[in-house]
Amino acid sequence: MRICFVGDSMVNGTGDPAYLGWVGRVLQDERRRGIELTGYNLGVRRDRSDQIRARWRAEVEARLPAEFEGRVVFSFGANDAVQEIPSAATLGHAEAILAEARACWPVFMVGVVPIETQGARGRCGALDRAFASLCDRLGVPFVSVFDGLMATPVWRDEVRAGDGAHPAAGGYNRMAEIVLASSAWQRWIRSAA
Amino acid sequence: MRICFVGDSMVNGTGDPAYLGWVGRVLQDERRRGIELTGYNLGVRRDRSDQIRARWRAEVEARLPAEFEGRVVFSFGANDAVQEIPSAATLGHAEAILAEARACWPVFMVGVVPIETQGARGRCGALDRAFASLCDRLGVPFVSVFDGLMATPVWRDEVRAGDGAHPAAGGYNRMAEIVLASSAWQRWIRSAA
Q1: Do B24 and A27 touch (CB under 8 A)?
Q2: Domain A2-190 has CATH 3.40.50.1110
Q3: Are the C-beta atoms of B78 and B90 separated by less than 8 Å?
Q4: Domain edges within chain B
Q5: Intra-chain end-to-end CA distance of chain A, in Å
Q6: How far is Cα B52 from Cα B72, in angstroms, rounded to an integer?
Q7: In which element (H, E) is residue A89 found?
Q8: B24: helix, coil or strand?
Q9: Which residue of chain B comes nearest to A41, CA vs CA?
Q10: Which tens digit of pLDDT belongs to each residue from A113-124?
């Protein structure tokens, strides 16, 4: 199975000296459990929802040929929150992306990470809750990582010791654990297409 | 510095249970030596030179904004060799890609890996030598990995034990070592833009 992970710098794993991020750790862990995935990391630093809407389809189509099982995971929103994009605009882009993608592939969404810079944490949390509702309405499986990361000292410590936004290996490892531990993810990755 | 790695399944790291490939290992190693890179892995399974020519520019432009130092590494050719694409066609695509890219960013090329399937090894080697000449003519720094990988038992053993084309962690680790040990790479990655 081939999975595209589409999103921002957190998907890219920026700041992780192991260059795995949560995406690489999720792929490693699933392989240890017997699911061999090809991963395509399409996380781009500073990307907002409108930028992801503009590029995701061409990039995913180039990587998921019809003759192989393909899926798509999205995770974005923090840059919209930092840049104070009106949430109606962000949600409009997210709905367009998710609705279009799920018409072609099984789709999963990972929620918004807490960003401390520029007082964005509250906006990240609000957007995360709005994405949960949107995904519920669209029937897209969703996992929130916001509260779990807020409760993770290593996430906050690594962010403070780093660039103020991105964790290092420990924080990304914890984010992977939260995704992997969710029943939504476990059901989705083990479901037939 | 942000670097896009554009190419095929070898760039993606297909078959590596660590999900690093040679690209992730090169990034890890440079970081240990003090060069903190953001890596964008744009390797796509089965991509030939014509497919890379069609997608590379939009994908790279979305990842290398003008205000940050950006560079591009290309590595492809094995799928052209396996599918017996006439070498004049492959070299035409490669020249168009490299000439267009180097007008915008510092560019580096990693040569063709040896593929055993469908008697492709000889064609891979010939294409690797042709790419070396092309890069020399264009002034694009180039490193060949072909002979080094042929002389690496773990590469050939892992390929045989795997899907017949891709190695596992040991082979990708050796490929990263060859790239890192080359004076062409060391000069390029440490040069001013």
Answers
A1: no
A2: yes
A3: no
A4: 2-190
A5: 10
A6: 13
A7: helix A87-102
A8: helix
A9: B41
A10: 999 887 899 999
Question: Tell me, what's the pLDDT at A193?
Answer: 64
Give the chain B residue whose CA is nearest to the CA of A27: B19
Nearest-CA distance from A146 to chain B in Å? 24
**Quick one: tokens of B84?**
């017996």
Concatenating the DSSP letter of every residue in B156-171 gives HHHHHHTTSS---HHH
- For chain A, the residues whose C-beta falls within 8 A of a C-beta of chain B are 2, 12, 14, 17-20, 24, 27-28, 31-32, 38-41, 44-47, 51, 55, 58-59, 62-63, 65
Query: How many angstroms separate the CA atoms of A190 and B148, rounded?
Result: 40
Residue A101 has a pLDDT of 98
At A22, list the tokens. Answer: 């949560």
Q: Give A72's strand partners.
A: A4, A107
pTM over 0.95, yes/no: yes
- Cβ within 8 Å of residue A186, ≥6 positions away: A180
In angstroms, what separates the C-alpha of A24 from chain B's closest C-alpha?
6
Helices then strands, counting H and E runs in chain B, come out as: 10, 5
